[in-house]
Amino acid sequence: MKENIVIIPTYNEIENIEAIIRKVFSLSEFFDVLIIDDGSPDGTGMKVKELQAEFVGTLHLIERSGKLGLGTAYIHGFKWALENKYQYIYEMDADFSHNPEDLVRLFNACKIENFDVAIGSRYIKGVNVVNWPIGRVLMSYFAGVYVRLITGMEIMDPTGGFICYKREVLQTIPLDKITFIGYAFQIEMKFNAFLYKFNITEVPIIFTDRTKGVSKMSTKIFREAIFGVILMKIWSWFKTFKR
């Protein structure tokens, strides 16, 4: 059984991709990296291929034909990681909004403290967000309030995308039935882990908005989260969750 794999979806991340890969490989704990590139026209995939000659067998690349959505990228990556027998499977952004050094803290939460899911949380200890306009901070924070109210989860950062899953969690959640692609994807995964009664913890992080490249956030993605939460709750009434 292999230990750690960090899944990083990319679209036009040429300004960040080499630095983020090198940073992950420099950590005290060892992590393999899987890049899932959605046909970036800026050459992100080509840069990863160049770096694979240096990081042989530890840097992996899946190239897709176009922008197919964050959720589908992670589902593809989860299945690849399970097939390749990794024990701890991580989600992380390519733009340094998630500090790669915090991967070690997520690993310790699952490996040493024996949690099934460890979430890098912006809101477990106040509001730890840097370089966001106040409107976006408030939108994100109150989205969490809304999610907790509807779902009953006590997770302070349900839309966060910096996460470690034990393989048993991803083997249990029916990945082919995950339906959303943006914020709602992150909520749906956590809601499934909650309904299957996995042990979830939040590890405080400082989230720093990207300084290079362009944000992929849109109002469409945010609307999906608002209405998706209600649909998820309704669907949960008609399902059984046993493991």
From TrEMBL:
Q: Which residues form the Glycosyltransferase 2-like domain?
A: 6-172
Q: Which terms does the record give in the GO molecular function aspect?
A: transferase activity
Q: Which residues form a coiled coil?
A: none
Going by the entry's taxonomy, the superkingdom of the source organism is recorded as Bacteria
Keyword Transferase assigned = yes
Keywords from the UniProt entry: Glycosyltransferase, Transferase
PANTHER family associated with the record: DOLICHOL-PHOSPHATE MANNOSYLTRANSFERASE SUBUNIT 1
Family, according to the entry, reads as follows: Belongs to the glycosyltransferase 2 family.
Record protein name field: Glycosyl transferase family 2
What is the organism of origin for this protein?
Emticicia oligotrophica (strain DSM 17448 / CIP 109782 / MTCC 6937 / GPTSA100-15)
What taxonomic lineage is listed for the species of origin? Bacteria, Pseudomonadati, Bacteroidota, Cytophagia, Cytophagales
